[in-house]
Fold these 2 entries.
Entry 1:
Amino acid sequence: MDFSKATILITGGNSGIGRALAEALAAQGAKLIITGRNATSLKATLDANPGMESYELDVSSPDAVKRFAMTVTLQHPDLNAVIHNAGIMVIENVLAESVDLDIAERTIATNLLGPIRLTTALLPHLRSKSEAAIVTVSSGLAFVPRADTPTYGATKAAIHSWSQSLRHELRDTSISVIEIAPPLVATDLTPGQSANPRAMPLAEFISEAVSLLSAAETPSEVLVQRVMPQRTAERTGNFEAIFGMINPA
Ligand SMILES: NC(=O)c1ccc[n+]([C@@H]2O[C@H](COP(=O)([O-])OP(=O)(O)OC[C@H]3O[C@@H](n4cnc5c(N)ncnc54)[C@H](OP(=O)(O)O)[C@@H]3O)[C@@H](O)[C@H]2O)c1
C-alpha cells in the first residue's frame, strides 16, 4: 500500500502518536483526515497543518460512528485508509473495595469496539477502492501485559487477534490489514508518561514506524526494534522475565 498517495483517516489524530503519524504521512504527500473528541487540540492540529481536515468523533459512541462514516465517505470519496489509533489506558485497582467497572467498560468501548464499529461502517466504501488499508494500533502490552491495566492489555491483545482474523477474511479483497504495535512511547497516554526516560521518544518511534509503513511491501505488522522483545517473548521463552520487568513484585 502506497500511503503517500492515500487519503487517510486517523482517529485520535489530535495528539501523541496519532498527530505525529498524521503529520509524517502528510509530509510524504498523503491527504489526512483526523478525528478526536477534544475540539481545542483538533483545532490546534489543523492550525499547524493546513490541508488536514478534522471531525469531532467519540469512537466509543455507536451512533456517532455510524453517522460519521456516512458523512466522511460522502465528503471524502477518495478515502482509502483508516488508522484506528484512538485509545485510552487507565489504571484499574482490582482489589479496591468497590471496583469501578466504568474504566473497563470505557476501555473496551474505545479501544476494541471503536475499531470494530468503525471498520464495519467503512468496509463497503473501502471495498470499492482499488487499493485500501485498515491499520490497527495494538501495543507491546498485547504480548506481555502490564498487570495494573488489565483491561487495556486485554483490548490490545484482542485487537491483535482481530487484526489477524480480519486480514485472513479480507485476503481476496483490495484491502490490506496492518497492525502497528508500539512499545512504550513518550506521549500523554498516561500521567507522566511523556517524561518517562524509559519511553521511546515520539519522533524516533514515528520515524522508524513510518519507514516500515513506507516499505515497498508493507509488512502486516509494523514492529520497531524496541518492541521486538515483547512481541517475541512467548516464542523466545522470555515471557516470564519480561513480565517480571514490567510488573515488579
Ligand atoms: N504511547 C504509548 O506508549 C503507546 C504504546 C502502545 C500503544 N499505544 C496506543 O497508541 C494509541 C495512541 O496513544 P498515544 O500514546 O498517542 O496517547 P494520547 O496522546 O493520549 O492519544 C490518544 C488519542 O486517542 C483519542 N481518544 C481517546 N478516547 C477517544 C474516544 N472515545 N473517541 C475519540 N478519540 C479518543 C484522544 O483524543 P481526545 O483527546 O480528543 O479524546 C487522543 O487523540 C492508543 O491506541 C494507544 O493505546 C500507545
Entry 2:
Amino acid sequence: MTVDDRFAGDADERFTDRTSHGRRNEPTIGPVTDWATDFDHLDDAWAADPYEIQDDLRQRCPVAHTDRFGGGWLPTRYEDVAAVAYDSDRFSSRSVVMSNFRSDVALAPAGGTPPITSDPPFHHGARKLLLPAFTRTAIAALEPATRAYCHELLDGLGGSSEIDAAVDYAQHIPMRAISDMLGFPPEDGPEFAGFVASVLEGINLPLTERLEGIGALFHYLSAQIDDHLAHPREDLTSYLIDAELDGEKLDAFHVAGTMGLLLVAGIDTTWSAIGASLWHLAGHPGDRERLVAEPALLPTAVEELLRAYAPVTMARLVREDMTWGGVEMKGEDWLLLSFPAANRDPAQFERADEVVIDREVNRHAAFGLGIHRCLGSHLARMELRVALEVWLERHPTFSLADPDAVTWSHGQVRGPRRLPLKIG
Ligand code: HEM
C-alpha cells in the first residue's frame, strides 16, 4: 500500500475535531474582543503587527487565554516560553499547528511529521537520522549553488525599477535549496507554495477541505518516493528510504512525513525571514547603508533580524489538567509557543523592541529552545546571509514602493507575502 493510499484510508482517524474533554472545536470567527481572554493568531491585526499586542499582554496578562480552537494559552515572557519548550513531560508536540484539529493520539510516538511531532523517547532517533545532512560543513557545500541561484533570480528580473521581493526573490531561494536536497525536480517549486499554504495557513478550514490540502502534499511525496525507489540516487529522499531506526527500515509514512516536514519547515520559514529582513532594510536606510558599507557585519545583522522578526511560532498540547504559570490548563488545550514574543521580552534583551544591527550578545530563540531546536538552522542562516549579500550587492539602494501594498502571512509562520520594492 502506498503512502498515498494510506493517507486517504487513515485520514479520518488521523485528526480529531474534539478535544479529550469533549469540547467541540469550532472555526474561529469574528474579531478578537480582548487579546488576554480571546486571542486569535489568525486575526488580521496580529498578522499585520503582533508586537504591540504581545508587549501589552506581557504587561497585563503574561499567559493569555482563548476559547477558540477548542481552548488554548499564549505565554509572552521569555522565561515562560523557555520553560514550556524545555518541558516535554507536560507539553506534547503531537500537534504543532494550532487549529481546529488535533492529530490523534494513535499517531504517537512518531506523530504525522517526525521529528517535529515526536515526543521523547522516539524523538531522539528520528532527529539523529537527519543530523548528517544539516551540519555546518554539509551546508557550506551548498553555498556556491545558492549564491549562483540568487544571482540568476535577479538576472531574470532584468533592470526592473520595482521588484516584489517576496514573490520574485525570497520564496524561490529556500524552495530551490530544499528541493535540490530532497532530489525533487526544480520546476515543481510553484507547487510547493500551495502545499505550504494549505498546511500552515489553511488552518481554519473544515476538516475535509484541510485534509484535501494535506492529501495533495502526501500524493506528491508518494510519487517522489516511488520514483526514488525505481531510480535511487544520492539525495535525502533515497537516504531516508534506506535509513534504519533501531535496526529496522523506516515506515513509509515516517519517510513521507519527514520529507513533508522538511519541505514545509524549509520553505515558509526562510522565505519569511528573507522577506522580513528586506522589508526592514527598505524602511531603515541607516541600517541598509551600513550593511552595504560593511558587508562583514552581515552575519551579526542576520542574528538580529532573526531575533526581531523571528518568523516561527510553534504549538504544543497540554498533556493533562494542571495548574501552570498561575492558570488552570486542561488536557488537550493548545499552547502557542511564541518565540517571536520571547525574543522581544525586555527582561531578556536590552532595547528589545529595536533592531540593533550590530548587537553583539544575542541569545535569541528564533530557532526554538530544547530538544526540537531547529535542525535546519545552518541552512537557514546560510540562505538568509547569501540572499541579503547578493541583494545588497546588486541593489544597494531600495525602498518600499508602497507600504500599504505589503501583505503578511497569517498563522504561525509570519513573513511578507507581497513586498513591492522600488529599486534605486
Ligand atoms: C529562518 C528560518 C527558520 C526558522 C526561524 C526556524 C525555526 C524553527 C523552530 C522555532 C523550530 C522549533 C520547533 C519546536 O519547538 O517545535 C524548528 C524546528 C525544525 N526546523 Fe526550522 N526554522 C527555519 C528553517 C528551517 C530549515 C531551512 C529547515 C530544513 C530544511 C528546518 C527544519 C527544521 C526541523 C526538521 C525542525 C524539527 C526539529 C526537531 O523536532 O527536532 N528549519 N525550526
